[in-house]
Amino acid sequence: MEGTIRKAAVIGAGSMGSGIAAQFANGGVPVLLLDVAGPGEDRAAPARAGLERQLKAQGFMAPSAANLVSVGCIEDDLAAVADADWIVEAVVEDPEIKRRLFARLDGLRKPGAAVSSNTSTIPLAQLTEGASEAFRRDFLITHFFNPPRHMRLMELVAGPGTAPETAALVRDAAERVLGKTVVDCRDTPAFIANRLGCHWMSVAAIEALRHGLTVEQADAVAGAPFGVPRTGIFGLLDLVGIDLVPLVWGSLLGALPPEDAHHRHDPTTEPLIRRLIAEGRIGRKAKGGFYRLAPGSKAREALDLATGEYRPQAEATANRDLAALIRQEDAAGRYAWAVLSNSIAYAAAVAGEIADDVAAIDTAMRLGYGWAEGPFALADRVGCAAIADRLAEEGRDVPPLLAAAAAEGGFHRRGAAGRETRTTAGAWTTVRRPQAMPDLAEVKERGPRFAGNGSASVWDLGDGVACLEFHTKMNAIDQGILAMVAEAAERVPAEFRALVLYNDNPRAFSAGANLGYFVERLEAEDFAALERFVDQGQAAFRALKHAAIPVVGAPAGLAVGGGCEVLLHCDAIQAHAETYIGLVELKVGIIPGWRGTAELLLRWGRRSDRPEGPMGTARAAFETIAGARITGSALEARALGYLRPEDGITMGRDRLLGDAKAKALTLSDGYRPPGIGSVTLPGPAGREALQAIVRGRREDGQASPHDEVVAGWLADACCGGPEAGPQTPVDEDALAALEREALSALIREPATRARIRHMLDTGKPLRN
């Protein structure tokens, strides 16, 4: 079998099927999307509607990716699956309908083509009843989570007859092409994440009713202390839709044996749930569930669980120390213990049924339900022995897996060979990652760091590659980060072959400069301190660009403002596909001042597709910076010049650091630092032209008064200053001086100070 996916097919163009097709296209794979025939002449209309739904819902990382999707109908076009390497079925959850489809596919697919079902409820054994041996060899379940673009988890179920090479092909394609973290599951009802996640939701909701908590109190307790998203339990039920309770929980409970502990918390029988469904109060999609906006108002209301009526939402907090919270002798403490004890005991009891090891279960819950840590890591945090002892004191069963963990110090540990985790049979196994997928957390555990301070650290990744990690809140750039950038540029080349800029923050590579420091200094009118901050950043980023070894930026999540500027100074970028990048300084009344304006001009000046002449270069950079737009993906970042055509994009977050390291090693052979760059710009004439554009926008109401002021300084920097002209190239240091001059003037503007304070206080831009 060929070890790659050149073409895919998805059958079923509902929200999941069309989303899976979009993700294939995001990964650069042509995909055929089929659905039932439309009633009119356009028989492909249902599939086309699925495609349009994904365009509207931003299932595509860039609109151009949709060009890789072709549509048709099952009745007319099923034979077109013949050249697909992987066929994904995502039709209605009816085993008979699926089996009839599989029988047709078996006669059409090419030899060795993988076929998988996206089912979340039907066992693999049931799906393959009556199938040929050849079909069973190439059949799996690939359970994606919604939305397929953003949810990293894919649960993989291989049957006893599934060929290892088919499973390997699908696993590799899911990781590399679709960007998924693949977790191997056993063929059991709801697999891992939904089995445990639905149980947790049932317990959290029903125990809140039993303990007399309000919805706000329950969400506060079952949220942050557990490392669960801030929706908590009732906010989550509103989000997924209360009307799904009879369907999802009913199906799951029907598939589980009566002795399964899930039956002790059955939400389908709760009178309040039934009442809300009957009255159409089913959550956000109905504008009312456990929470709602008061009619004709933006005031939030919460449901009184005793009366079923709404009242003003109240504030609620809970002790974030879960170990202390469960010891509290009040309703919140008793409720926290009920949720924790039932969830951990259930996970330990069914672990051997659903997975090979507890690490797989923890991963599934982190990525499928957004938990900060899975149930077994959570048990380690609270203390396995404390949980087991209290269960025993209460006369409740202690599952053998939990008892073993309590006796031996937990479910996870650090052994002589590295990280170890328990198998679900109770033994210890070493966690091994492929060499191409290094883990920064594991590198840090081994330690010590090569260099560092309170804001940033340098770590040894092995093979002569160092990693510079930012670790402030949202990786906002402060003096400590700038100091470490400068130190790394000077010290790392003496010990290493290359440097990678990377961190594990799930939300941000860097959210830009520390606005708190800006506000503090501005309110003190300490402009000299801010000018030193600008100088420090310019010097640090210049040193990084001209370091004696190659530097590769590896961003994921937000990379805005100064976070974007540091990337512009790297020799190359290997970006996660879900990188949201932009120079957004205009929103706070300034321009990019850490040489970001200069670097963007240099990039546009070198692009083969740039607008013609010096004015074209200046205007392209000006429009990009003045737009202050954050890209929706790494694919979009290429169009704006933040990524070059040769920069790489990694679909899977788990592979990003390894891909960046490999790129850095490739660049290190024969590396020479770049010389001082220069670009030809239009000078004063261009500045006047750009300012005229901004004046027009101001007159049309598209720009505010301070937008015009900031744009004037930006226009000067983008056009090279008063001495520039078509025959006089401007070097990067001169451009950086123009940035500094602009920053020095703009920080003294009261309107800039108002913008920065408003952004810090509200997170939203002020149009003044």
Automatic annotation (TrEMBL):
Coiled coil ranges: none
GO terms of molecular function: (3S)-3-hydroxyacyl-CoA dehydrogenase (NAD+) activity; NAD+ binding
Pathway participation: Lipid metabolism; fatty acid beta-oxidation
UniProt keyword annotations, A-Z: Fatty acid metabolism, Lipid degradation, Lipid metabolism, NAD, Oxidoreductase, Plasmid
Domain 3-hydroxyacyl-CoA dehydrogenase NAD binding: 7-187
InterPro entries, A to Z: 3-OHacyl-CoA_DH_NAD-bd (IPR006176), 3HC_DH_C (IPR006108), 6-PGluconate_DH-like_C_sf (IPR008927), ClpP/crotonase-like_dom_sf (IPR029045), Enoyl-CoA_hydra/iso (IPR001753), NAD(P)-bd_dom_sf (IPR036291)
3-hydroxyacyl-CoA dehydrogenase C-terminal domain span: 191-292
Pfam family of the protein (one): 3HCDH_N
Entry's Gene Ontology BP terms: fatty acid beta-oxidation
Catalytic activity: a (3S)-3-hydroxyacyl-CoA + NAD(+) = a 3-oxoacyl-CoA + NADH + H(+)
Name of the featured protein: 3-hydroxyacyl-CoA dehydrogenase
